[in-house]
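Re: your question from the hallway

Yes, I did run it. Sequences:
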Amino acid sequence: MLGKKKLLVGGLSALVVGALLAGCPPKKELKTEVGTAEVAQKVYVPPGKYDEFYAFLSGGFSGQVSVYGLPSGRLIKIIKVFSQDPETGYGYTPETKPMLMTSHGFVPWDDSHHPELSQTDGVPDGRWLFINANNVPRIARIDLSTFETTEIIEIPNSAGNHASPFITPDSKYVTAATRFSVPIPQKDVPISSYAENFKGTLSFIKANEPGKMDVAFQILVPGYDYDLAHCGKGPSYGWCFFTSYNTEQAYTLLEINASKNDKDYIAAVNWKRAEECIAQGKYQEIPATYYHNYYDEKKHMAFSEVKKSVKVIIPKDCPGVMYYLPTPKSPHGVDVSPDGEYIIGGGKLATVIPIHSFSKMLKAIEQKAFEKEVDGIPVLKYDAVLHCEVPKPCLGPLHTEFDGKGFAYTSCFVSSEVVKYDYKQCKVVDRAPTYYSIGHLMIPGGDSAKPWGKYLLAMNKITKDRYLPTGPELFQSAQLYDITGEKMQLLLDFATIGEPHYAQGIPVDIIMKNVKKIYPLAENEHPYAVKAEKDARVERKGNEVHVYMTMIRSHFVPDNIEGIKVGDTVYFHLTNLEQDWDIPHGFAVKGSEDAEILVMPGETKTLVWKPKAPGVYPFYCTDFCSALHQEMQGYVRVSPAGSNVPLKYYTGTPTAQK
Amino acid sequence: MLGKKKLLVGGLSALVVGALLAGCPPKKELKTEVGTAEVAQKVYVPPGKYDEFYAFLSGGFSGQVSVYGLPSGRLIKIIKVFSQDPETGYGYTPETKPMLMTSHGFVPWDDSHHPELSQTDGVPDGRWLFINANNVPRIARIDLSTFETTEIIEIPNSAGNHASPFITPDSKYVTAATRFSVPIPQKDVPISSYAENFKGTLSFIKANEPGKMDVAFQILVPGYDYDLAHCGKGPSYGWCFFTSYNTEQAYTLLEINASKNDKDYIAAVNWKRAEECIAQGKYQEIPATYYHNYYDEKKHMAFSEVKKSVKVIIPKDCPGVMYYLPTPKSPHGVDVSPDGEYIIGGGKLATVIPIHSFSKMLKAIEQKAFEKEVDGIPVLKYDAVLHCEVPKPCLGPLHTEFDGKGFAYTSCFVSSEVVKYDYKQCKVVDRAPTYYSIGHLMIPGGDSAKPWGKYLLAMNKITKDRYLPTGPELFQSAQLYDITGEKMQLLLDFATIGEPHYAQGIPVDIIMKNVKKIYPLAENEHPYAVKAEKDARVERKGNEVHVYMTMIRSHFVPDNIEGIKVGDTVYFHLTNLEQDWDIPHGFAVKGSEDAEILVMPGETKTLVWKPKAPGVYPFYCTDFCSALHQEMQGYVRVSPAGSNVPLKYYTGTPTAQK
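Structure:
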């Protein structure tokens, strides 16, 4: 993919330059070692059987989360998070619009990067999935009993929320950090005053109580680009680690100017210490406007609240809260081994994979083995914290996960491969090509204290000729490997929605036991819900008309409405009375700004309609619901403004029709 | 799916009622006859190999088209048609918003039902794919060299454009018809005046010249619900056939009131005769406002024109233009055999599958074997046109396709199965269960003069327990069958985006040879394109600021901009200078109402930004494009309104930074 174009390769090593200029590997037809039949069976899930793992892949520029089954690679759901969804009306209906409100106004879509499962004792527990928005910094909580987004917290004092939302082993916090440093708080200053005025923040967000996400505290840090993070576990519980690049503090042409230093930093943050400083008042309360949006599952409605300030720790006022670990070169991933001892940096321009030791780090701190200090943050000596450098592993190492058997797997963007190595012995034991340009990889549980292993999923940035061509725009590509043997075995290519920057995998049993199949009608507290056809009605309030409508196979009540006028705003409040799984109904009326919506069993949703011209307009069910689905329709009569046609509504019976 | 709820089953036969009340088949784990290994191999496409067929599935309530590879069932693309796409900015950017304009204003999404490939000599030729919008009646053309929507025509005098867009064998016309009858033209009348005031239209849309879609003519017909269509070929070339239901002309509680008549009609339209009447002036020119939107691929921009009238034929003024064929009972599908002789109705409440004979129909017309006339339209005698009724085929027959070997395959919604029969002998030879509630089915080329056969795809309405549960909302389900043998063999379940109402399949070679990989930069005629970095610039025009920006690995030019003021509207016109396949770049700036966009190689797109507060805002590439993708970023400085900070922009070099 780094094809034939001239590339600006300023400060890069000769090795990387060579690779950058070498272009993509040519298309290969892969031979599998054991023959197609055996491989085919490994990924084939016969009709009626279930996959073994749920995989949650971020949508990147789609702003959503895609749910796949593994090993089949089948897409089974797109979870609506940071983007309007024209299918269900998410982000369009009055009930869901508040979910996408921010201090910058309504943001119709965003860039979602890193899904992260909640954990208990360092092991994914299947309760929630968190994911970040990068462009307008936010973190969302997805409830894995409904696979719906139930909460979004905005991150103030941030730009480019990339190192997010990585979780502590007890789900107490998820992280957020500025990929782009900016004036904090924002102010109108020359861009050239970057070194003086631009700062970063590392944020810790309360995550363990649904409906109560908030920014616990932020740490104000030097103006580097903070990239990725992972939190410690076991012995390193209480710490989180963040990569940074652009320690050069460039603000233009970063591809050259931010690639000069041989080492950048991993920031090691002692959040337990930060909690102490907060308790001791060693922070500044800074005014900051940010939104907290949450979805009330019983009211079937989202609400926003605006928060006004945030606690910020200045490192020099809270000694011991963080240290920098020098790490070659422009590191991307930072990944902690299941036992919590090893911290692996993915130096994307490095020719080695550096592995730091947490116990050596503690010792170096104790011995004050500092190289220097930056803004009150000690920089530890590289040799004092390094466990080893994996020699000549690959080109462009990015991100690492673990199989729980003593091996680490690092994705290598430039050389398009996965390298497997013994991270204690620092010895490469296997490598497998990927097609093409792998970004992150995922092993189920592979970033936790207890990886389930078995599969490795490569998420590749370039697809080119891997699937049937679909014009200039192509889906991206995932590749599934069997990692149960000594050698990785490529099983399957499958295309992905958006750009999966990262993923999480979890055995299906953990999720399945909690999944809800319907919304209980009896618990529906939507203010415009009706729970029986007899209560369906139409009410006028000035120019507003509220239609309390029910849906059940195969009719609406009411299905004939007259007395609507041009100039009215009509609110169709639709309650799906079904209480069986997988019986949604839809509603569409011609010319609605909101087009049409889907309503799940037991749910209430609202479609807003401002009819523009007199006439008789049909409405209909948009989700094929029964043999008589096509008959599930009705009419609204719209009269001119000022007309005296009275409000009238009914569902016909043979009697009523006369 | 027709579960435990009480159902209103007014006029239905006892047989159907029994099935309606019986509920879903229980979940079964299917045994394949030949063992998993062989079946697995039949659908397994090894990494690096291609699928055999492109399959285009409508998105239903998603408003889009999904592209799958068969036999693997892998989703490889979502084509943006009738819905805003938060991933690419389709329907949000100034370039693409005109595509979604209608006489009802901007419609952010719709309900897409029936993809239809262009044909030459009755065989799909891979040039274009057409698809209808049901809610706000429209037809779109998708260019299969780019997989992008290039044209949308609105259908006036219509509501619920369902019997659409079925094509003539030479691609001269695609059809459109009113699923919901309405006053034509629209007027404010009581709904109870349905029989008097409500009419349908059958429309023929010019399809064979890109950029020139238009309504050739409409036929005003009685106020029934027109459901589906297919056009004749071979001997029946010059005719199209439309099903209708609700010949009862009910307007409320249709599930009872429109299910009373034992037979409804298939409308047989002689469009050659209609052309004669148009040529002879036997039509009325009716005022009608409707939009024609087209996308100029070189300008990278969509344009709308508003049309003002339409030619309408009244059947009694054009004798011979159409006939009704009585057809049991509430027919859904109408499908013409590859040889053009047999017309199969899918009477969804019928207990037989009626097969009409085209040659018998011609003879009946000649002999005036009429039962009666409706609004000047002769109703032919059922026995005079019937070839046969396939006896006791299944419950709820809906839709039929052909394998080219003398067999028809009909989907049966109520009994959840596909039935295979010899349509000349009228003899069922095989049946296969589907899970659950099949709607339409698709055989590659199965609705054309030359089916490719091999596979049958069942598109099922109910998914329930076929995949891992994902909460109350589930994807729908497709099932792939091998139809090369005497018995259909179920191969694979895969989940689908939205609700696929219909699909088209075509061998990959036909499409692949024409697919474009980039947009040639030299041909880019976007008024704000820049084709070299030296031409990048920023221009102020009052409160409008136009940024002519380039993107190439791994930087923007300019990447630092100052002198923007609060109150400005900033237009980022982004040109991707890459000319390699699969190197898109993205652009996001914090707080933009349009969030972020993707730009393909050689393309120009515009993102509109209205900064709300002073500060310095980062922008960045949202599509991982190189090893230095994370470095592809820049800053915009925003000063207060009235500030005197001058306009300034650059991309730094080591010199420029000083």
